[in-house]
Automatic annotation (TrEMBL):
This is Galactokinase. It comes from the Bacteria. Residues 269-341 form the GHMP kinase C-terminal domain. GO terms for biological process: galactose metabolic process. SUPFAM superfamilies: GHMP Kinase, C-terminal domain, Ribosomal protein S5 domain 2-like. Coiled coil: none annotated. One of its GO terms (cellular component) is cytosol. Belongs to the GHMP kinase family. GalK subfamily. It holds the Pfam family GHMP_kinases_N.
Length: 364
């Protein structure tokens, strides 16, 4: 009986929230908390799935019908996508999926489940193409976003699949750059308020696209990917008042991400400068896109008052978590500052190397 253990880390977004669905770049990193999928061959023709963290069990026939799958059923959508690549299950497994990522908190627990599932299926049943971190990331993206017509981009799956700190060009000219830069003092703060994903993402994406289209209707060669912050005024005159903020946010956040990339590429980055850019990014998410809530704002304030270099909300917004960059000597004070401001949890994480198979052996 074969035993396979597949690990996928969570991720946090350092720069570029609400940018990837516009095809704009992001800087994200995999973190040292994640999802572990443990599978043991069972001699049956089913996957027995156990998710103890959410007290959920289900049984999936390995040759079941994969038509008319409910949106959000990531396991079945992934099976459907992988069949197209000739990754076809031929034996069953008892599978436990659990982890230490907060759920619905902006650290991509659902994407980590998908990536760990994709990695397991390929390890167990093979695939008709070379297996690389990029392939795992792409198939996870196809399963979670493309197949389900979801509003997200590629950040979650690729930052988890590739690991480390990664700069991702998310548009049609997709590319990525892994930044092998040590980054200490990363702290995650949990608000305990479930984030709002699909509805909020879809609304903000649609309004940003309308704002961009309004400019393109007047300036034919306008491209938000190459638009400069110093040219904002000449673009904004073509945008209805109720959409101006969305164009401002898109172009300004893009500018911030590019400045952060320049800093990360330096032999010795100025982490205080990176923290200041995180603060600028958060201010736009808070004041322009309005995706924060009072508790998140208090947690950010608590972190900064305790000496953090920078702090920002992570993910779609409406709740979830924050990411903080703190000096080594201030980490404990910052953690306490977040908790004192109402955070239900705060802890340091390190940069993770990405999704991987931890074990693939014949079990006794």
């Amino acid at each position: 009986m074969k035993k396979i253990i597949s690990l996928a880390p969570g991720r946090t977004c350092l720069f570029g929230d609400h940018q990837d669905y516009l095809g704009l770049p992001v800087i994200a990193c995999a973190i040292s908390r994640g999802i572990k999928l443990t599978a043991v061959e069972n001699g049956l023709q089913v996957f027995n799935i156990n998710k103890p963290d959410i007290n959920q069990k289900r049984t999936i026939p390995i040759n079941g019908n994969l038509e008319n799958i409910e949106k959000g059923d990531h396991l079945l959508h992934t099976l459907k996508v992988l069949r197209r690549y000739n990754c076809v299950p031929n034996k069953g497994y008892d599978i436990e999926i659990k982890g230490n990522l907060p759920i619905n908190a902006g650290t991509s627990s659902s994407s980590a489940v998908v990536v760990s599932w994709v990695n397991f299926l390929i390890e167990a049943f093979g695939i008709d193409t070379e297996v690389t971190p990029e392939l795992i990331s792409q198939l996870s993206y196809e399963s979670e976003v493309v197949e389900q017509k979801a509003p997200g981009g590629k950040m979650d799956q690729y930052s988890i699949g590739l690991g480390n700190i990664v700069f991702i060009e998310t548009g049609d000219d997709f590319s990525f750059e892994v930044i092998n830069q040590p980054l200490q003092g990363i702290i995650i703060g949990e608000s305990g308020i479930p984030k709002k994903t699909l509805g909020l993402l879809g609304e903000l994406r649609d309004k940003a696209r309308l704002a961009i289209q309004a400019v393109k209707s007047k300036i034919k060669d306008f491209d938000v990917k190459t638009a400069k912050k110093e040219d904002l005024e000449k673009y904004l005159v073509h945008v209805p008042d109720n959409l101006k903020g969305y164009l401002y946010a898109a172009i300004t956040n893009h500018d911030i991400t590019q400045k952060a990339l320049i800093e990360f590429r330096k032999p010795q980055p100025d982490f205080q400068r990176i923290g200041a850019l995180m603060n600028e990014h958060h201010d736009i998410l808070k004041d322009i896109l309005k995706i924060t809530v009072p508790k998140i704002d208090k947690m950010i304030e608590g972190a900064l008052n305790a000496g953090a270099y920078g702090a920002k909300i992570v993910g779609s917004g409406g709740g979830g978590s924050i990411v903080v960059l703190a000096p080594e000597e201030k980490k404990e004070q910052v953690i306490e500052g977040i908790k004192s401001a109402g955070g239900i949890a705060a802890y340091e994480v390190s940069v993770d190397s990405g999704a991987r198979i931890l074990e693939s052996v014949c079990a006794d």
